[in-house]
TrEMBL record:
This is Fe2OG dioxygenase domain-containing protein. Substrate binds at F75, G76, R77, D151. GO terms for biological process: DNA alkylation repair. 2-oxoglutarate binds at N136, Y138, H148, H225, R237, T241, R243. One of its GO terms (molecular function) is cytosine C-5 DNA demethylase activity. It comes from Dendrobium nobile. It holds the Pfam family 2OG-FeII_Oxy_2. It comes from the Eukaryota. Residues 129-246 form the Fe2OG dioxygenase domain. Belongs to the alkB family.
């Protein structure tokens, strides 16, 4: 992959810390950087955590976190969210609300291991100060996340979201947000060019146990993402997404 600038339009992004302590559980394994264009970027580190530490944390999260499967409202109807969830946030932050659901905000002190994971992420991403965490548990392949973007105003205009995965490997998909239809009088060449671009505006990542994926820049403004159903995924996956609430 060719070298690219880490300075995205409107803010300055930082690379993963190349000088992690030798005794840290994080590994400096290879990272892939996907330039989505127009100031959007994804960084993926498949071996962010050692396998042993990742399994220790997986067991804790699976057994100790107060998971719930809330009732949400989507497209005018009510349904159970197709995954378990939990929310942790620092005191005094604006309440989170999505799909008509406002989760209870647990504190970091109630689940100290989450502070350890937060510190590992902060060590790897110099300059970040995440203050909230959304946890999701996929109990089987029929649990999923539909297409969406995390573009709530509480996260600001260029949110950085760090996602740590544990357990079963699942696909993470990205695609460009829909654009307005071409005018009916557009030339055949223009329509062909638009079709060619749209077919390229999709990306897929297989999120491994102990991996880290970071979305930054204008990714939430211009892109949507999902974790689709997978019938052959029979075991549990747990995903932690660290965010910074700015208002």
């Amino acid at each position: 992959m060719p070298a690219m600038s880490f300075r995205l339009r409107g803010f300055e992004a930082t690379e993963l810390n190349p000088n992690l302590d030798a005794n840290s559980c994080e590994k400096r394994g290879k990272q892939s950087i996907t330039d989505l264009g127009d100031g959007s970027e994804v960084v993926y580190v498949p071996k962010f955590l050692s396998a042993e530490r990742a399994w220790d944390w997986f067991d804790y999260l699976d057994k100790e976190i107060p998971w719930t499967r809330p009732l949400i409202h989507v497209f005018g109807r009510s349904c159970l969210q197709p995954r378990d969830t939990c929310y942790v946030a620092s005191e005094g932050l604006t309440a989170l609300k999505y799909s008509g659901y406002q989760p209870h905000a647990y504190t970091w002190d109630e689940y100290p291991v989450l502070r350890d994971i937060l510190q590992a992420v902060h060590d790897a991403l110099p300059g970040t100060r995440f203050n909230s965490l959304l946890l999701n548990r996929y109990k089987c392949g029929s649990d999923y996340v539909a297409w969406h973007s995390d573009d709530e105003k509480v996260y600001g205009s260029t949110p950085k979201i760090a996602s740590v995965s544990f357990g079963c490997e699942r696909e993470f998909l990205l695609k460009k947000k829909p654009v307005k239809k071409e005018a009916s009088n557009a030339s055949e060449e223009q329509r062909h060019k638009r079709l060619k671009i749209s077919c390229q505006d999709r990306h897929s990542f297989l999120l491994k146990h102990g991996s880290l994926l970071v979305m930054r820049g204008y990714t939430q403004r211009d892109w949507i993402h999902s974790v689709p159903k997978r019938a052959k995924s029979g075991s549990v996956r747990i995903n932690l997404t660290f965010r910074q609430i700015v208002m």
